[in-house]
Amino acid sequence: MLSLTCPCCGITAEETEFTPGGEAHLTRSGPGSSDSSYEAYMFQRKNPRGVHFERWRHAYGCGKWFIAARDTVTLEVFGTYPAQTTEPPAEIVTQIRARRPDWTPEPQGAA
Amino acid sequence: MSDTWASALPQAQFDGLIRIREAGLCGMITLRGDPAALAGPLRAQTGLDMPAQRRIVSAGALQLAWMSPDELLLCLPHAEAPTMVAALQTALAGQFATVANVSDARAVFDLSGPRVRDVLAKLCPVDFATLQPGDIRRSRAAQVAAAILSLEDDQFRIICFRSVAGYMFDLLAGAAAPGSDPALYP
Ligand SMILES: [Zn+2]
């Protein structure tokens, strides 16, 4: 079972109280972008076995979006943080590195 | 136009593990905006201070509940809601805030009895041991959204959308069937 803590209302609840919103920290490509970057923005998603950053919405609770850093294999949650964040905060990276020493943060926005 | 108002399931009641009563007509106002902008007009109109995160403050027939970082729910007598909405809208004119009378969009059930946490625990993914009187917890009851207000010890109130009032009542009554106590809580 996946349990998440919503940073907006402080509630820790199990997965069914939330709605998944897919990969976090996407860089939006809009008018004026190249076809390939637009295609990457629209369709290409990471599907890692291990550390992943995802958007979640506290749909049955406060209704707010936030971001969760978790392991897709073990469901271990390294931390959650506000949606208004363009890259994983330093304390989240530290938290992940403490549990997964081999993991290195990827430059965000890369397809 | 008719002046006759009716709640979702007038007089609906069930007595089993707990006592379930449809609460009748309840006034409810949703306020959205920056809490700093809402605090002054609310205090002037209701005398109530802003509730802390996931808390309810009350005075007399008024209750003010924290719903999210930018949302509050004001509960008051049904007949007073239109006047209160008008007063708050005037006080908040020009601000980035909304005030809406949602009284008739909702259904309200009062639940009481020493087994009330056990009945709710069958329906909601919530640890009711962590809920104190004066807390509000938004979650789901089986398949529908619910706001659960812990009023006093052994006394809860559940608010849902009016369109699912029948589902909610049947759900609560089923979970309160005699002989089905999970005995999770002392
Ligand atoms: Zn939340």
Report a brief summary of the structure.
Chain A is of the alpha+beta class.
Quick one: overall form of chain A? globular
Q: In angstroms, what separates the terminal alpha carbons of chain A?
A: 29 Å
Mean pLDDT of chain B: 96
How far apart, in Å, are the first and last alpha carbons of chain B? 51 Å
In angstroms, what is the radius of gyration of chain B? 17 Å
CATH architecture of chain A: 2-Layer Sandwich
Q: Note the total helix count of chain A.
A: 2
Task: Enumerate the strands of the largest sheet of chain B in spatial order, edge to edge or round the barrel.
Answer: 1-2-8-11-10-9
- What structural class do helix, strand and pairing data of chain B support? alpha+beta
The CATH architecture category of the largest domain in chain B equals 2-Layer Sandwich
- What summary fits the major beta sheet of chain A? 4 strands, antiparallel
The ordered string of helix (H) and strand (E) elements of chain A is EEEHEEEH
- Strand percentage of chain A: 25-35%
CATH class of the largest domain in chain B, named Alpha Beta
- Name of the level-1 CATH class of chain A: Alpha Beta
- Total count of strands of chain A: 6
Q: In percent, how helical is the residue content of chain A?
A: 10-25%
Strand content of chain B: 25-35%
Number of helices of chain B: 4
Domain module count of chain A = 1
Derived from helix and strand composition plus strand pairing, the structural class of chain A reads alpha+beta
